[in-house]
Amino acid sequence: MSIDWNGNETYETHEPIGPGSPSGLPRFEARRLFKERMKNRHARIEMLRRLVAAGGVVLGSDDAAVQDLNDWFAANIEADPENPGFPSSECYSVCHDMALFLGEVMIERHPNLYWEFFTWGKKSVSFQRQVLMGLSTEDPKFRTNIDIDGMVVGSAHEVLGSQGSIPTYGLVEIKGHLIDIDSTARRPHRSGAHPRPRVPAKLLVVRRAVSARVRPPHGAGIL
């Protein structure tokens, strides 16, 4: 990690919130968090701009600048020392800021998109999270959306995994039998299957957005 968080005076972290946690908050608290992030999003993007500038990266909305941000992200992400495989609290904060920035880039390119507080379906992975809606292909039944925050955090997990930082879950008892979750996860999923190859850090954020199988208006690329 090239960023000295203790001596960094250009970046102030978000309140600590991990992936998925808004779904477990009371509605009023989750909505407060959403409104606060929307109110402060431009200030947070400016904070991100100063942070990446210290590393020689210019924050911009063109493809080359987005790729530079992606490469910076992959090179600087670090795991929580006490929780392998999970980003540190500072890096979670950067993930949230990157999601706000990338969301604004997508809105700039496709003005019919907008931020929304997602409340449709408690079982949805996007429940009570900030998402982008307004897609021309939106399914009114499933409320099609782009959870860009979840995509960036998911990419952080992939980068850490590709660097060898893997979460451990230990033993669980299922019907009287102890199962080693970590050992099971390392095995091939089916007979003769090969282990999943390590994913290169480059283009993970963009790849995640594309792999969401949600296309913006007129079939244009997401980023």
Percentage of β-strand residues: 5-15%
* Terminal-residue CA separation: 27 Å
Q: Could you list the spans in which at least 5 consecutive residues all have pLDDT below 50?
A: 191-203, 210-223
- The structure class reads alpha+beta
Tally the helices.
Answer: 6
Proportion of residues in helical segments: 40-55%
* Overall form: globular
Provide mean pLDDT, rounded.
Answer: 80
Major β-sheet strand ordering: 1-2
Domain count: 1
Describe the oligomeric state of these chains in a short phrase.
single chain
Q: Which H/E pattern describes the elements?
A: HHEEHEEHEEHH
Computed Rg: 18 Å
Biggest beta sheet attributes = 2 strands, antiparallel
Please characterize this protein's 3D structure.
The structure is a single chain. With 223 residues, this protein is an alpha+beta fold. The protein has one domain (21-169, 200-219). 41% of the residues lie in helices and 10% in strands. The protein has helices spanning 27-53, 63-76, 89-109, 148-162, 181-186, 204-211; strands at residues 79-80, 83-87, 114-117, 130-133, 171-174, 177-180. Strands 1-2 form a two-stranded antiparallel ribbon. Strand 5 and strand 6 form a beta hairpin. Helix 1 packs across helix 3, helix 3 packs across helix 4 (148-162) and helix 4 crosses helix 6. The protein is globular and about 55 Å long. The protein starts with 26 loop residues before the first helix and ends in a 12-residue tail after the last helix. Residues 191-203 and 210-223 have low confidence and may be disordered.
